[in-house]
Amino acid sequence: MKILRINMSDLTYREEEVPADKLLLGGRALTSRIIKEEVPATCHPLGPNNKLVLSNGVLTASMASSAERTSLGGKSPLTGGIKESNAGGTAGLKMGRLGLRAIIFEGIRDDFYTVYIDKDGVRFEKADDLLGKRVSESAQLIYEKYGKNVGLYMIGVSGERKMNTAAMANADKDGSPTRFCGRGGLGAVAGAKGIKAIVFNDEGVEKNRPKNPDVYKEALKQYSLSLRENPGTGKLFPELGTAAMVRSTNKLGALPTRNFSTGSFEHYKSISGETLREIILERGGEGTPTHNCMPGCAIRCSNIYPDKDGKAVTSPIEYENIGLLGSNLGIGDMDQIVELNRLCNELAVDTIETGAAIGVAMEAGLLEFGDFEGARQLLLDLEADKPMGRIIGGGAELVGKIYGVRKVPVVKGQAMPAYDPRSIKGLGVTFATSPQGADHTAGQTVRAQVDHHSPEGQVKISQKSQVVNTIYDNLGLCYFAAGAVGPNLDMLARLITGYIGVEVTADDIKNMAKQTLKDEHEFNRMAGFTKAHDRLPEHFYEEENPASGTVFDVDQEEMEAIGVEGNHAG
Amino acid sequence: MQVKVTCMIPWRSELTGDHQIPDGMTIREFVEEKEIAWDQEALVTVNDRIVQESYVLKEGDHIYLLVPVVGG
Lengths: 570, 72
Ligand code: SF4
Known about the structure:
The complex is a heterodimer of chains A (570) and B (72).
Chain A: E1 2-7, E2 12-17, H1 27-38, E3 52-56, E4 70-75, E5 82-87, H2 91-97, E6 100-106, E7 113-118, E8 121-126, H3 135-146, E9 151-154, H4 157-160, E10 168-170, E11 179-181, H5 186-192, E12 195-200, H6 213-229, H7 231-240, H8 245-252, H9 273-283, E13 288-291, E14 302-306, E15 312-314, H10 319-325, H11 334-347, H12 351-363, H13 372-383, H14 387-393, H15 396-403, E16 410-411, E17 414-415, H16 425-433, H17 458-475, H18 482-485, H19 489-500, H20 506-526, H21 539-542, H22 556-560
Parallel strand pairs in A: 1-6, 7-12
Antiparallel strand pairs in A: 1-2, 3-4, 3-6, 4-5, 7-8, 9-10, 9-12, 10-11, 13-14, 14-15, 16-17
Chain B: E1 2-7, E2 17-20, H1 27-33, E3 43-46, E4 49-50, E5 62-66
Parallel strand pairs in B: 1-5
Antiparallel strand pairs in B: 1-2, 3-4, 3-5
Bound molecules: iron/sulfur cluster.
Iron/sulfur cluster (SF4) binds at residues 66, 88, 292-294, 297, 299-302, 478, 480 of chain A.
């Protein structure tokens, strides 16, 4: 496995062997380690000293179910801290087949290039023809030029304009560019480096084979069986997808509604996983309620949403998007949510950040809650590069500052995903203390059979979840497999041992994750973060969520002990 | 003693309705009697709060069996 180092300023590259101390690092562990070691924490995120690191997980390209995720890392223009955002899709698989564990992009430039990588090396090609277009259109042009089977990453107009909400898209197994490294504005970092697209062509490359096939096969058998037998991964995700959460969070008073002013939504039924499935099945055509974003994923939580004529609109419709672009905006119509989701995908903006930004604009009275046409127009303004679009594209915190709004659901500048932290308090702790800013995938606690409304024990649960989530991010495994894997980390350790041929234990995996969290906190400390940043916005402590009757009241000192200054993550 | 159940797990919707249970039954005993694996197949609330396995059910309690997935 190699690390590819690309300098975008002078369009040169060199390959390096993965150094011995990084052999077991993948995904988030590797992006965060490289950022910590090579990027001055005080640098400007869009400047020449920031780097953008793409790293496969340790298991990526192994073809184990749900293991083809890739992490994107850098200093975030949104949070000013370290950032890792990962996604499924197919690009990681192609990158892995080309023998690459990671790619480090350095330098900046004003024009845009496609970075084309195949078995013979790297080519830089001017990307002028791809600029200013919707993501689906640019992807089409890439397929026409380089062939249908290439893997790709690309930014949209948001990244070209270096917006805080800019994401990086990659394609699902059907070539649809709808899987996003969405969080933290890393699409803007790519834009600053002049990277419009990265194309992987793995033609003529041997398939990756496990180094110790017997161990690998045995572990894979056990892993696949647990995915099949677990009710969540075997039945619920394939049937209802993540949207199955809507009814649960609504019941717990945690479904963000009208800029997180309450946690249950009167139209929750019409935006539930059950309704989503019904609509998709009824319309048929190109739609499907069960779909995998990458080849070989047995969980298949994804879906394709069809219009009334059965033509695919976009994919996937997920819980977070329903929450942020639906109930959070007072919008209770599935077709309308899907249209907003589709536009976000086309512009390659983070759906969570954008939904929260529009929610804050609604709070400011710029448009009414429930005003779908108004919300849609804001996204079209973003596309047309109008001032209003620039404002929304700056993210929720910026909108709040410009319009004097006090209630802005962000931590460290990053918008909260679709859980009111007053009702799922463990997630509140994660939002407050994660080096990533408000992020559910940094320490998901909602699945735990604990009283989420009580402040007791939440720091412990969050701390544990932060480690577990990091383990999955490091391995390139989809976190949705966690329900089936449970505490059985030995199974994952054997999978890795079999794949890379180096003995790895469950403790190694856990310690690596703890070290990743330490690396990230250390970078943030150097960037100027203190315990004052490990807090939720003030109103969550003072104003009750009417749906749950609770405020956020987890002990601050206890939280700080696992945050940036406490750094006892683990 | 009677408790009420709302089941959101699609393939167990028949559980929705009123159930007669013996005094002193815990929520975990009730859930397992219905052949739902505790802490695996459902997130369980009683009167809108997630409860511990040792919670002893009371007359009129409203149990929700929520789907145990996470969002992404
Ligand atoms: S579970 Fe869903 S998101 Fe995860 S790998 Fe499978 S299809 Fe992709």
